[in-house]
Amino acid sequence: MTFALTISPSDLLLLLPEILLTSWLCLILIIDFSFPRLPNEQLAYFSIAGLVATLGCLAWFDITGITGTLFANMFALDRMALFFKMFIVGSTILVILASIDYIHRFKFFRGEYYFLVVMSALGMMFMASANDLLSVFVALEFSTIGFYVLVAYLREDMASNEAGIKFFILGIFAAGLLAYGISLVYGETGKLVFSDMQAAQATPGLVIGFLLIFGALGFKIGAVPFHSWIPDTYHGSPTPVTAFLSIAPKAAAFAILIRMFFVALATFKPIWALLIVAVSILSMTYGNIVAIAQKNMKRLLAYSGIAQIGNLLIGLATGTKMGSDAMLFYLLTYLFANIGAWAIVIAVSEAIGSEEIDDYSGLGRRSPFLAFSMLIFLLSLAGVPPLAGFIGKLYIFVAAIKEGLYVLITVGLINIVISLYYYLIVVKKMYISEPHDRSPLKISGPIKVVLYVCLAGTLTIGIYPQPVTDWVVSALLMFSNLADPTASLPVPPAVIPFGG
Amino acid sequence: MGDYALLYILFAPFMGAIALIFVSNRQAMLVRGIAAGAALVSLLASLYLFYAYDHVKGGFQFVQRFEWSHQLGISLHLGVDGIGTPLVLASGILLFAGIFVSWHIKDRTKEFYIWLLILAAATIGVFMSLDLFFLFFFYELSVIPMYLLLGMWGSHTKQYNEMTDPEGLKRRDSVGFIFNFGSNSKEYAAMKLVLFLSAFAVAALMGILLIYKFSGLNTFDILVLREQAKLMNIPVLGTTLDKIIWLLIFFGFASIAPLWPLHSWSPVGHAAAPAATSMLHAGVLMKLGHFSIIRVAFEILPETTRELMPIAAVLCMFSIVYGGFVAFYAKDTKYVIGYSSSSHMGYVFLGMAALDYISLTGAVMYMFAHAMATGMLFAMAGWVYDQTHSRDIPALGGLSNRMPFISGCFVVACMASIGVPGTVNFIAEVMIIVGSWNKYPFQVIVAVVGIVLTLAYLFKMMRGLFYGPMDQKYSHAHDAVSLVDRLPLLIMITVSIGFFFFPMHLYNVVRSGVDPLISKIIRVVPVASLNREAFDVKRETTDPPETPDAPLLTSNPSPLTPHPSRGLE
């Protein structure tokens, strides 16, 4: 194939958010070097300003409907990509706000921290637009390199170093899988762009190739059986990095998964749906059951994150437009609850220097606001009305029941009950157990802002989800050609296949 | 305000809870005032609702409908029929009484009232939901406040408090203690309650999702589904789909009722809960089960209900007898009342299982009557516990000297709970017994034995608490003297006795809700068992007797003995 790379100014417009963020990235670095005495908060707010400008630019694209593709379809800027980019930039803003307090723990390179966070965000923005296998590889590695450094940022801390090594080795392994899978797929089809591969035959090489790619992406999202790095890495990393790692790369990887499965592999849906069902069941069950035994808040949230990914995969397993709508919706609810919960872990560890669940005893008396926020976020993660997580779970279940995934829904419903147990253990510690030390906790301003934003998101989406559902539905209009389950429903099959 | 009555009832407690967030805990009187004000608005609106409900017209009234999510086919569809109206009123009364019963809570008063208001509002929401999604939404919303109310303001059992040795203290504080089934800490009770109810709630949710899928209507609206959903005769797994859905819905909601094998969370939960929570819990929360079964299974799957409802008739016997015997041997006041509640809920199931106009009307009236009776009992058990810090019946005694008002009210509450003439419980019980006699004579005999058991255990508890010698360490206990403390009891006693003397409106309202439901259930013939010709013939013969029934009984002037011949015909 030949690339005819002619770039006109109107094409560059499509890249405007990325160009804006790239130049801002350079500015951050220059300012950090030029003014070594600049307080770190200033740099944080400066990074946030850039991100907000990018977010505004993306919102403008979304409202005016500026879309298109670039570089021979390698880079697609459609409504879905815009959704994911806004999602990533929004979560980056919240993470930077939450890390302003934490930053004093880093002995060196405090300024570069913001640079690396924004750089990873930039990589993930490219992931959201990646429309062929090469750009998937490049964007994915670009965003991961930032994380390799960020995870090991607490240089004096053995756990952080361990987390870094573990993440690096497994991440490199996943990159290898990805490259090998891409080469197999290219060898079989001669195509790289997702939309060109649609009619390909299912040859063994192609199947293995896509399985390898799925393995690499499964590593990114942390689905069982590719989850082994999650608990230790989440535990050892600096907490804001963990918060970032637990949401943004997952969303970006889901953008690629949706493109790959819904566009390139749409014709093989019955085959891959079974694979996703299996991975989803394993992730939900494993994550929830192991989370019960956790004594550390970060590990508990890590395992609960694995289970949440299992829930998201239910949406992918449906293979329908409604399923993908539900995934986007669920990701939004997960963003608020998850970042909020991590922000509280940061606030508590700043105040009492511990991340053990036992040290959350009596949080309801020491800081009613923190305890109440944590209650809301945990219950939203568990899926209790009237919080966003409940609507998210219900949306996914409704999409799945329309496709007849009864076993998957049953497992999902049972898992809600299991997850309630360990979330309520934390609630019990916060509200019922007596505190070891009654002194009230101090919360800093930026963390409060993060908590208010996340609380507002969790509650409003839970109480009135209509605007958000409209948004996600319109973001995925390009999939409306996928089989719509409502259109052909009234004639149920004579025998319902209970199973996948 | 007329049309918006439901919104006032539902949102007043929510608004009260939101307002309380902005009040400091130090202004205790303001906190209580806001809570009482919100509850009062809700109570007055529900009184208005009850008396403005037009029983001649029947059907769903005060309907409000707001589009909520058109992708999922959900709307906030509120409305009450003759079955929901008295239960909304009962919730309003118990919430208002509960605010005053917990007037003296010192620890985190504000949070207590916030959760109590949310709990009551969620319960009320179920009684007026005409959308399956919102029914489940409010149902599940009522579970979580229970966890916090039990855990934060509840009380441990005697065994737990006796674990004072170092080994015991260490065990008490471990997370795994929740699995220690013998000792019944409040954490254990709260966790058990939430997990148990959630586990069965998700079963019900599965049933709801199956209805949603196989109706193919892309809506959760009960009124649409009951007219248009065709769920019969879809073979699946060797049986039919409607049976699976019915069983999921029935057992999913029966767990909160609580029907016999699913009852074990309930007495433990009652025992751990603070008085006002127990009142709401036993008074109205348990009725969510019966109500949801009526609203979902009876409305949407009438044929299957007729086929499978005998399950309830069998299980309710175990509920009645088992609950009664355990209550007789229990030594903890709240366990006695808790088991008595689960035993009495068996009567409601009996009334529902008979699928008869009189018995179902009796069952709904019994739900209302039981809410008052059990509310009084829990309020007084709470008062005694507050004064003596003991719920151990053998250790207590002779308190009637110290608290004459409470012991007097206790007699009335026992009478109401037993169903002595003079309380509305009597009317309801007689109606259940008369209405079910035709179909389930054996169960009726069991139910009558159950009444004798009730008499035995309640009198035993009354004697244990208020008569006999008094331990000197309880000499500081004092009576409820202030108006705030007496008001809730007086309200509930007035309602309980008042509806005995003036039951007509209650009866008419309930009857207007029951009639269309039962006539729908007993008219339809299971299509599966008949071919088309037989179906048409049968339909002609079954149609006529259905109509004269209803007017005959609605015009019955004396509902005290609701036409006894009717049960024997």
Features:
heterodimer; A: 500 residues; mainly alpha; 20 helices; B: 569 residues; two-stranded antiparallel sheet; 25 helices; disordered C terminus
Task: Walk me through this protein's architecture.
The complex is a heterodimer of chains A (500) and B (569). Chain A contains 20 helices and two strands. By secondary structure, chain A is an all-alpha fold. Chain A has a two-stranded antiparallel ribbon. Chain B is mostly helical. At the A-B interface, helix 17, helix 18 and helix 20 of A face strand 1, helix 5, helix 6, helix 9 and strand 3 of B.
> Per DSSP, what share of the residues of chain B sits in E-state strands of 2 or more residues?
under 5%
What is the overall shape of chain A? globular
Mean pLDDT over the residues of chain B: 82
Indicate the low-confidence ranges of chain B by residue numbers: 528-569
In short:
The complex is a heterodimer of chains A (about 500) and B (about 575). With about 500 residues, chain A is mostly helical.
Topology, element by element:
The complex is a heterodimer of chains A (500) and B (569).
Chain A: H1 9-14, H2 16-34, H3 40-64, E1 68-70, E2 75-77, H4 79-99, H5 110-129, H6 133-151, H7 158-189, H8 204-221, H9 230-236, H10 239-245, H11 248-264, H12 269-292, H13 297-318, H14 321-352, H15 363-366, H16 368-382, H17 388-402, H18 406-432, H19 445-463, H20 466-475
Antiparallel strand pairs in A: 1-2
Helix pairs in contact in A: 2-3, 2-5, 3-4, 3-5, 4-5, 4-10, 4-11, 4-14, 4-19, 5-6, 5-11, 6-7, 7-8, 7-9, 8-11, 9-10, 9-13, 10-14, 12-13, 12-18, 13-14, 13-17, 13-18, 14-16, 14-17, 14-19, 14-20, 16-18, 16-19, 17-19
Chain B: H1 5-21, H2 28-52, E1 61-69, E2 74-80, H3 84-101, H4 109-128, H5 132-141, H6 143-153, H7 158-161, H8 166-173, H9 186-215, H10 222-228, E3 235-236, E4 239-240, H11 241-254, H12 265-272, H13 275-285, H14 287-300, H15 302-308, H16 310-329, H17 333-353, H18 357-388, H19 404-418, H20 424-437, H21 441-466, H22 483-501, H23 504-523, H24 532-554, H25 564-568
Antiparallel strand pairs in B: 1-2, 3-4
Helix pairs in contact in B: 1-2, 1-4, 2-3, 2-4, 3-4, 3-13, 3-18, 3-22, 4-5, 4-6, 4-13, 5-9, 6-9, 9-11, 9-12, 10-14, 11-14, 12-17, 13-18, 15-23, 16-17, 16-21, 17-18, 17-20, 17-21, 18-19, 18-20, 18-22, 18-23, 19-21, 19-22, 20-21, 20-22, 23-24
